[in-house]
Amino acid sequence: METANPTHQLTGRKLAVKLGGTTILNGIDFAARSGQLIGVLGPSGSGKSTLLMALSGFRPATGGVVLFKRKDLYKEFEALKTHIGFVPQDDIVPTQLRVERVVKYAAELRLPDLSKEEREQRIDSLLGMLDLQERRRLRVNKLSGGQRKRVSIAVELLAKPELFFADEPTSGLDPALEMELMKLLRRMATQGRIVIVTTHIMSSLSLLDLICVLHKGRLAYFGPPDQIKPYFKVSDFSEIYHLLGTREPNEWESHFKRHPFHQKYLASQLQGGS
Ligand SMILES: Nc1ncnc2c1ncn2[C@@H]1O[C@H](COP(=O)(O)OP(=O)(O)O)[C@@H](O)[C@H]1O
Ligand SMILES: [Mg+2]
Which of 24, 97, 99, 270 has its CA 20 to 30 A from that of 149? Predict the structure, then answer.
């Protein structure tokens, strides 16, 4: 997808996470650019959350390099983190505070240089975009799971991040809300952001530009959603998780590395050096 600023790139090279002798991520390559919505999929425990933490810099990989806007994310994290939003898997604390208070406090903390009016304006537009205007006076602990998730997203969007992560944002939502949230993330990407999301939702895969499939910490697929069924030779996406278990993770990885998608969507992007 063409974007206003194609130079905004996020790349991960040979990302590895080793914790206490266990390898949780093993040599993962990753490449994203502005305008893209990328889904990270894989069985539970395959390393999705770990990859998001590593790509966002919030919990750096123990091996490998992440570049964002041509800069080493881990070395320049303090400067770059203002451009990064992260909605973690766990909901925000179900506080007694009203929605607008929570967002206002966050705005005061994160946007101290804006005037009160500018902050109010930004809050208004975000609450509108996230369909929370009518609930702004409600207490957070009275909201539904989906509404709470949208408050978390509003807080993370305050600083207008160019790079946005959401870890299972649709878990606990009903199918209609899931779809709405995925469409919102799609719009956020199309506006020129890089949006990376972990999901289990099969119905919204067509909204994604690229899918990254992990299996036991290894990369099993990185490519377009409409090519994933032919790639794995399955008729339904849900068969893939079972299929992954029938071969060793490194076999899936080397299978993918031999496929043209590896060159097209990863190797060529990583060679560019941006
Ligand atoms: N702090 C940790 N110490 C040791 N193992 C961990 C830690 N965090 C996660 N793991 C393990 O790493 C693997 C990947 O975890 P995670 O990234 O949360 O997977 P996913 O998000 O795909 O379910 C799991 O086997 C998990 O048990
Ligand atoms: Mg997870």
Answer: 24
